[in-house]
Amino acid sequence: MAKIKFIVPILLILFSGCSIKEYAHTKSKIITIKTDKLKYSDLGYVKNSDDAVSLELFVAGKMIQNIEINYLICVDEGCMSKSSFNEEYLNASYPDELLQNISLGKPIYNRKNFVKTNDGFEQYIRDDNVNIKYSVDSKEIRFKDRRNSILFKIKELR
């Protein structure tokens, strides 16, 4: 009986990563994602609260993918750690919080090479694993890694 007292809370924590979240903000955007495994460019929704983000991707009014980012990253195929998601869908060298920070327009790589602009900021990050140009302004979030052929754009509707 004592073991059950410990197992139930652990299971709740593990499965709460993929549970339905309440989001404080929902905005429709033009979302472009180009990676080896994900190719998408159309209308989508970015939903977020303080600790979670959801990218709902639509084609012709039908949701084709939902990416939930919280403690885990959940896609239609199931949930995984952020580092596992990066390894499978993006690049293993990326920091765990990369996708969440891009989705919210926050600085990446602990603000490395952060340059404030009139309407946002830019970051250029280059090393043996990446060649990234990341820019955020009031109209668009743009992440491009030339070395790994990865592009994310989240653009305001006009």
- Rg, Å, rounded: 17 Å
Please state the structural category: alpha+beta
The rounded distance between the terminal residues' Cα atoms is 59 Å
**Fraction of residues in H or I helices:** 10-25%
Q: What's the number of helices?
A: 3
SSE ordering: HEEEEEEHHEEEEE
> Strand order within the widest sheet?
6-5-4-3-2-1-11-10-9-8-7
The largest β sheet comes out as: 11 strands, antiparallel
Q: State which percent range the strand residues make up.
A: 35-45%
Low-confidence parts, pLDDT < 50 over ≥5 residues?
2-19
Mean pLDDT: 87
Using the alpha-carbon principal axes, give the shape: globular
SS elements, strand count: 11
Describe the structure.
The chain is built from three helices and eleven strands. The protein is α+β, with helices and mostly antiparallel strands. It has an eleven-stranded antiparallel sheet with strand order 6-5-4-3-2-1-11-10-9-8-7. Strand 8 and strand 9 form a beta hairpin. It is globular, with a radius of gyration of 17 Å. Residues 2-19 have low confidence and may be disordered.
Q: What layout of secondary structure does this protein have?
A:
Blueprint: H1 2-16, E1 25-34, E2 39-48, E3 53-59, E4 62-69, E5 73-75, E6 78-80, H2 82-89, H3 98-104, E7 114-117, E8 120-126, E9 131-136, E10 140-145, E11 150-156
Antiparallel strand pairs: 1-2, 1-11, 2-3, 3-4, 4-5, 5-6, 7-8, 8-9, 9-10, 10-11
